[in-house]
């Protein structure tokens, strides 16, 4: 079994960990360290099943405007890992999630992933946030370098899945899938003049390109486009440009904080265009930021079933697990559900990898997941396809700040 060496020193302040070690395990770890002669980097350990732990590592934003996203993904995964651990773990091994803050900055993601690979020797990485962040890992060939798979990226960027990278597995639909759904739903009912508000980075460019393609194919017009800088809410220029074009609808390829600020300023400017945000925007959080009255009517694309509706086995299972293992200061939402789904996929791969897993065995096992049912949501991978899901739905905020289908 591939395990991290347990250290007696305290984890770094930026590390969020869910320790599952007993005093006996700590003593064994200390003894192992002495026997190893204090080696800085131990070779991957293989052992029989029936004990120990498997470390899953996460680099994600836990500070800055995307902190709720990183925290939500982590919470969803931790809930499922706690559920699995309570049932005895995977082949007897308990799961431990180690998360560190990268501030949604691509260079930091690269640094943190390399650091985690060296320090905790994870069986897998999980829950990176951001198209540019994921692309940076691929550009630098970090995953291949460390030989550890990454499961679940909070991104629908095409570059992450086309072509399939051997070490990266995405458990959500692409932004192109989301934009296509928006165009198919809104253009036929009369929305012909459409603008795009987007983040000026690979994420935003990906969504903008999809909008240009699908709007043209549908015979609709892209009447304006406005951008904002990543990790900011400087939307003034974009609001001015888009409001001047007087579109019937605006597709928001933006994060929650920027979407909220854009909507607030656009409404203040007197423009009442229908706003449709891609799945990276948290609708209820927008309502909290700008008020229910202003946020009312915002449509939000979703890539997992509504966790509050209890209409699918997945949503009912998650709701029950959320009550059993409630995370601190986190509300049940689609981001939590996305983390939960990704964790289920990873755990299934760990099971299939057998009692003596290695990162390579887990990677290979992921490619055997075909038509894997996580509770009404079907995911699957192959040797040439690492885009696990095509599920897309559209919700809308009501007057109480709640999402409805």
Automatic annotation (TrEMBL):
The keyword Signal applies. The keyword Signal applies. InterPro entries: Leu-bd, Leu_Ile_Val-bd, Peripla_BP_I. Coiled coil: none annotated. It holds the Pfam family Peripla_BP_6. Residues 56-401 form the Leucine-binding protein domain. Belongs to the leucine-binding protein family. This is Leucine-binding protein domain-containing protein. It comes from Oryzomicrobium terrae. The lineage of its organism: Bacteria, Pseudomonadati, Pseudomonadota, Betaproteobacteria, Rhodocyclales.
């Amino acid at each position: 079994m591939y395990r991290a060496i347990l250290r007696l020193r305290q984890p770094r302040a930026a590390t969020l960990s869910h320790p599952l070690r007993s005093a006996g395990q700590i003593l064994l770890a200390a003894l192992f360290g002495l026997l190893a002669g204090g080696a800085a980097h131990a070779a991957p350990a293989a052992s029989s099943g029936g004990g120990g732990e498997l470390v899953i590592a996460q680099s994600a934003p836990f500070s800055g405007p995307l902190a709720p996203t990183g925290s939500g993904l982590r919470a969803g995964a931790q809930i499922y890992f706690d559920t699995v651990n309570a049932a005895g773990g995977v082949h007897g091994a308990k799961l431990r999630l180690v998360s560190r803050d990268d501030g949604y900055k691509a260079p930091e993601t690269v640094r943190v992933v390399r650091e985690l690979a060296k320090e905790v020797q994870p069986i897998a990485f999980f829950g990176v946030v951001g198209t540019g962040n994921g692309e940076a890992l691929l550009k630098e060939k970090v995953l291949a370098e460390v030989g550890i798979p990454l499961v679940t990226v909070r991104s629908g960027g095409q570059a992450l899945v086309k072509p399939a990278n051997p070490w990266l597995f995405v458990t959500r639909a692409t932004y192109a899938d989301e934009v296509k759904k928006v165009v198919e739903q809104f253009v036929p009912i009369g929305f012909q003049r459409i603008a795009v508000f987007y983040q000026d980075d690979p994420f935003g460019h990906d969504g903008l390109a999809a909008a240009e393609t699908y709007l043209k194919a549908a015979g609709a017009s892209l009447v304006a486009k406005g951008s904002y800088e990543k990790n900011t809410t400087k939307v003034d220029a974009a609001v001015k440009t888009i409001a001047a074009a007087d579109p019937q609808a605006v597709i928001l390829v933006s994060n929650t904080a920027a979407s909220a600020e854009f909507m607030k300023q656009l409404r203040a400017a007197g423009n009442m265009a229908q706003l449709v945000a891609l799945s990276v925007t948290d609708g209820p959080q927008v309502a909290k930021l700008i008020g229910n009255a202003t946020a009312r009517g915002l449509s939000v694309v979703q890539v997992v079933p509504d966790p509050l509706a209890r209409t699918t086995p997945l949503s009912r299972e998650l709701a029950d697990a959320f009550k059993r293992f409630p995370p601190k200061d986190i509300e049940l939402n689609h981001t939590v559900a996305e983390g939960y789904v990704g964790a289920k996929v990873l755990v299934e791969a760990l099971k299939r990898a057998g009692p003596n897993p290695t990162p390579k065995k887990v990677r290979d096992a992921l490619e055997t997941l075909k038509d894997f049912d996580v509770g009404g949501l079907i995911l699957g991978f192959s040797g040439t396809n690492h885009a696990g899901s095509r599920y897309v739905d559209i919700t809308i905020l009501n007057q109480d700040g709640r999402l409805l289908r």
